[in-house]
Design goal:
9 strands, Pnp Oxidase, Chain A, alpha+beta, 20% helix, six-stranded antiparallel beta barrel, single chain
């Protein structure tokens, strides 16, 4: 298999629409963090997201991934539709950035976002949990129906939270 880098940019609006569609496709995400000892850690959580691609989730502050975020905010998140089948058109999104715990007095926006996506959410039931906000610096989208087979588009988020195309990698069969 060869990876070919395309020089043709993908429009920011197309990347944003694809990214939003991918985030809407699943309510679960996989959150990757690193322990202070340098070991990788992975956790799944229900998440909500904002129009500027910030993700929020609820977690127990004593959980390993929560402790990792306090020690080192670097994190990555993957979202994909778990109903996909081998051989069909695949899709998913990877986001790379930083996460932080939101203090009780400042969690209003995170809670509103989360409650809008999960109407059955009840704060009193999860009083030991805290909200975490993930702010991506970069994202990679993969949607074969939208972008073509084997096409991965990477974009960065500018200071104004607009997406800026960085590169397109096309995975080609060696056949």
């Amino acid at each position: 298999m060869a990876i070919v880098r395309s020089k043709r940019p993908v429009a920011a609006g197309r990347i944003a629409a694809t990214a939003r569609s991918l985030l809407e496709a699943s309510t679960l995400c996989a959150i990757a963090t690193v322990t202070p000892a340098g070991q990788a850690h992975l956790n799944t959580a229900y998440f909500a997201w904002s129009r500027d691609f910030q993700l929020v989730w609820l977690s127990e502050p004593g959980a390993q991934h929560s402790r990792n975020i306090r020690a080192n905010g670097n994190a990555s998140v993957a979202v994909y539709d778990s109903e996909q089948r081998w051989g069909g058109p695949d899709r998913g999104i990877q986001l790379f950035g930083t996460a932080r715990e939101v203090g009780r007095s400042a969690d209003g926006d995170a809670e509103r976002l989360y409650a809008a996506r999960f109407p059955d959410y009840g704060r009193e039931e999860l009083s030991a949990y805290r909200f975490y906000v993930f702010r991506p610096r970069r994202l990679k989208v993969f949607d074969e129906r939208e972008l073509g087979a084997g096409v991965f588009v990477t974009a960065r988020l500018a200071r104004d939270r607009r997406l800026v195309w960085e590169r397109t990698d096309i995975y080609r069969s060696a056949v």
